[in-house]
Amino acid sequence: MKKIKVGQIVRPFGLKGEVKVKLFTDFPEQRFCVGMPLFLSNGKSDIDVIVASFRMHQGFALITFEGKPSIDDIEIYRNFELLIDEEKIEHEEDEVYFYDLLDCSVVDENNVLLGMISEVIDSPAHAIIRIKREGKDLLIPYVDAFIVDENMDEKKIKVRLIEGML
Questions:
Q1: DSSP-derived secondary structure for the chain
Q2: Choosing a second label site near 2 at 20 to 30 A (CA), which of 20, 86, 100, 163?
Q3: % residues pLDDT > 90 (the chain)
Q4: Is residue 106 packed enough to be buried (19+ CB in 10 Å), middle (13-18) or exposed (0-12)?
Q5: How far apart are CA 112 and CA 51, in angstroms?
Q6: Reading across the β-sheet that carries 147-151, which strands appear in turn?
Q7: How does residue 100 score in pLDDT terms, banded at 50, 70 and 90?
Q8: For residue 124, what pLDDT is reported?
Q9: Is there a contact between 22 and 63 (Cβ–Cβ < 8 Å)?
Q10: Under a CB-based contact definition with an 8 Å cutoff, are residues 19 and 44 in contact?
Q11: Domain 3-87 falls in which CATH fold?
Q12: Can you give the pTM of this predicted structure?
């Protein structure tokens, strides 16, 4: 089962088991709906939780979990990541999510391997893909002017480079 990061707990919020969550999803109402199973992860182990309540507050999600009704129950989860089972995410046909791009190989227009995508940066203007290379990473805007072709079945992306990018 592949797990996708959808948020990170910043800190407890109040005394009744609510946590303040930094979002890594554009669909918080779907990812954190009441009854949604999630995983709390510290990078070493995962803990299964069920969302008991969800609301938005100043750009952050405020969430409680079933069976964790007080600040004492959730204080230990500060900085834990919130993960969701990829199968719980409804994919539209031909739609590519940022997590789909991770670990894709990237080639230029001559099919020369440039490297692998290690990160997708969500900047205000457009997404930027970070291509891991020997030496220096390569940053390419994820826009039509640079993306020639995407083959998600093969996890391969063809890009158009301009002078000075390498």
A1: --EEEEEEEEEE-SSSS-EEEEE--S-HHHHT-TT-EEEEE-SS-EEEEEEEEEEEETTEEEEEETT--SHHHHGGGTTPEEEEEGGGSPPPTT---HHHHTT-EEE-TT--EEEEEEEEEE-SS-EEEEEE-SSS-EEEE-STTTEEEEETTTTEEEE---TT--
A2: 20
A3: 75
A4: buried
A5: 46
A6: 138-141, 127-132, 113-122, 105-107, 156-159, 147-151
A7: confident
A8: 84
A9: no
A10: no
A11: Elongation Factor Tu (Ef-tu); domain 3 (2.40.30)
A12: 0.71
Q: Are 141 and 130 in contact (CB under 8 A)?
A: no
Predicted pLDDT of residue 111: 94
The reply to whether CATH 2.30.30.240 applies to domain 98-159 is: yes
54-82: pLDDT as tens digits: 999 999 999 999 999 999 999 999 999 99
Asked if pLDDT for residue 91 goes beyond 80, the answer is no
Unique residue bearing structure tokens 């969430």? 63
* Locus of tokens 């750009």: 59
Domain boundaries, the chain: 3-87, 98-159
